């Protein structure tokens, strides 16, 4: 397992932190203006607002998932190909990746890294 450089780690923190703020603000703003629990599906403005928010939310979670997939795949090209599939074809491709991952590796567990001073090791 390759350790990220400090610069790459900072860039990923900024990317996912920004993604967090965008998705959270989108959901909060939409819910404030068009409460989800009122479920006014006959109101075009309510429906459009929640459609856009749902799309933003889907891509927010998909981009998080692509980060895991890209770092888990054996090559960048396969990670990018899977990620494009997730973004363009949606959850069926995500399900196929999970099914293949379970079939080939037996589980979906991410490795835990424990840092002890200067050294770190992976727990299985």
How would you characterize this protein structure?
There is one protein chain. The chain is mainly alpha-helical and 124 residues long. The protein has one domain (6-123). Helices cover 69% and strands 8% of the residues. The chain is built from four helices and two strands; from the N terminus they run ααααββ. The chain has helices at residues 6-33, 44-72, 76-89, 91-105, and strands at 112-116, 119-123. Strands 1-2 form a two-stranded antiparallel sheet. The longest helix has 29 residues, at 44-72. It is globular. The two termini are 13 Å apart. The model has no long low-confidence stretch (mean pLDDT 89).
Secondary structure class reads: mainly alpha
Largest sheet: 2 strands, antiparallel
Strand content: 5-15%
Radius of gyration over alpha carbons? 18 Å
Which runs of at least 5 residues are low in confidence (pLDDT < 50)? none
C-alpha geometry: globular
